[in-house]
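Can you give me the bound-state structure? Components:
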Amino acid sequence: MLLEVNNLNVYYENIHAIKDLSISVKEGETVCLIGANGAGKTTTLQSISGLIPKRSGEVSFSGEDITKMKPHKITRSGVAQVPEGRRVFTNLSVLDNLRLGSFAISDSIENKQKEIEKIYARFPILKERSNQRAGTLSGGEQQMLAIGRALMSRPKLLLLDEPSMGLSPIYVQKIFEVIRALHDDGVTILLVEQNANIALSVADRAYVLETGKIVKSGSSQELLDDPDVKVAYLGA
Amino acid sequence: MNFLLQLLNGLQIGSIYALVALGYTMVYGIALLINFAHGEIIMIGAYTVVFSIQLIFAGTDIPYVFAIIPTVIICTLVGMLIERLAYKPLRNSPRISNLITAIGVSLLLQNTMMKVFGAQSRSVPKIFDHKPIEVFGANISISTIVTIVVTLVLTISLQIFMKKTKYGKAMVATSEDYGAASLVGINVDSTLTLTFAIGSALAGVASLLYVSSYPQAAPLMGSMLGIKAFTAAVVGGIGLIPGAVLGGLILGILEALTKAFISSRLSDAIVFGLLILVLLIRPGGLLGEDHKEKV
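Here's the bound-state model for the whole set.
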């Protein structure tokens, strides 16, 4: 297992937000966490990446215990997160945002430049906007930048938090084409998404989260065929 | 001629305000904290100048200006220590707790120095003992020229550091979003410490430049200087590096000109009155956008 979360519990003050959650992601897999607004999807991702403290439970990544690690150390160990709401650095240029994406990794300037070229090849619009302030980009472009920034650290695991949120249908399509392409390139992905239809179309497996608990899991096909999931999440 | 001289005097004290204002503005931009103890760094710097000259340089051939080395080191260390001990534990507390703590640290430093070294001021030996230079019939002291040039060089270097280097950009990123910064692998704690270190190092330089023209060190000397520099940062647009410099220079020049041509006793009242006027018209400061705060 590349990522293993065991019996994770997270609290906001007295609110028990995540209850004994256990999930795992194998190398090369795209796994998706679906659930309604407020089910705890973002909380789960943020506590894996260290932004939110865990009350109890263990998280291990690549065989290493990262439960108590600080977020910047977790990033350095190979987990990159594309946060909800994109959170690009609006006052910095597109190029600087990408450069900061590789802040943590020690690599030659040439290799980092190659990585930037790869990202520009994947997202040609970012190359056009290279010297523009990130704050001037559209929501969809910012989402691409946020993904590009995360890829700059050449992560072993990519955490994607609500990549479709607030985007026009065309951009949602584009972003999910990219996720599919990343999956085909062998990038391991843990995806959190409210739009269950599109999420299940790219994922190998999925977990269903309800009020902080995993209530169902299985292959994407199994969940797409599940009558309860159909009614609750697929609008069928 | 007198006007030119006063203008240069204003530029000189304004440069010192600017250097101190840079510390306020950087810390505010990144930590959203008004570090009221920043003025006390100047005071500690001034004492370091006095004691390093007395204990190390006196009786040697080393020029006193080399007191800048221990001064910058001590100021930087004290600034970093204040951040680690006083502000870091309050990182997630309401901003009012930080504010009260900042005032507390300021009083603590003033009173500790008063207890240890006494309330009376100590005189600082002459640091630049060259003759004044004559320009257009006006005698300009070396310390005036050094102060203006050093401030210019440091400001430009700081701006290059922020815009061009990896760590400068990491500071800008951190000022925008701690969470997103840590997700790209930036150590937010060390970035904040670095911010305090740079601000305090600049204050160390400012303290040597200050005592080279106003040769006294006293426990309370930092408070008025600190308030003026803080005002300069706000008038220029707090959080903005060019704003701190602009604010500092404007404050210094206004002060020198009112002292020379209107009234030296009323100068603070007149200068601060004008600055209040500026803030009434532009609440975000001269270079600041309204409701936007950043480095």
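A couple of observations. The domain at 3-233 of chain A is CATH 3.40.50.300 (Rossmann fold). The interface with chain B takes residues 49-51, 70-72, 75-76, 80-81, 83, 87-92, 96, 99-101, 103-105, 149-150, 153 of chain A (CB under 8 Å).
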